[in-house]
Amino acid sequence: MNTGTDEDPLPDVSKFEENQEEESVSFQIRPCLANKFKCEKVKEVIREVLNEKLKGKTYDVAAAGQWSEEIAVMIKDRVKELNYTRYKLMVQVVLGEQRGAGVVTATRCLWDADSDSYSSEIFTNDTIFCMAVVYGVFFY
């Protein structure tokens, strides 16, 4: 509902106000044990998705970009189903051709070691390697 005049229009914030009323206010600064990011459960989700999407496939440079995007979205959606409330989820997928060379990756970030965590899994076959990482960062 806009109550302003043409000279001084006020933005319509009614939808914002409705959403604010629906959300409960919480000043919890740490996740409770039941809602804490569980690395083993997330690792299982990653493993299932990687096997489902890549098992039996041969590396295809034209399809690799789409595969990695589909895998990332699928992992994110399935981890969301675990209902880690107030966690921001980030998914990184690295997919490449298996040629005998090694791959080294590193990640650095600033986070709370008591509540933030990550889980990773690696898939390999004769022609493909794929590494997927899910980061769960508690949102204060």
From TrEMBL:
One of its GO terms (cellular component) is cytoplasm. InterPro entries: Tctex-1-like (IPR005334), Tctex-1-like_sf (IPR038586). Pfam families: Tctex-1. It comes from Bemisia tabaci. This is Tctex1 domain-containing protein 2. Belongs to the dynein light chain Tctex-type family. PANTHER family: DYNEIN LIGHT CHAIN TCTEX-TYPE PROTEIN 2B (PTHR21255:SF7), T-COMPLEX-ASSOCIATED-TESTIS-EXPRESSED 1/ DYNEIN LIGHT CHAIN (PTHR21255). GO terms for molecular function: dynein intermediate chain binding. GO terms for biological process: microtubule-based movement.
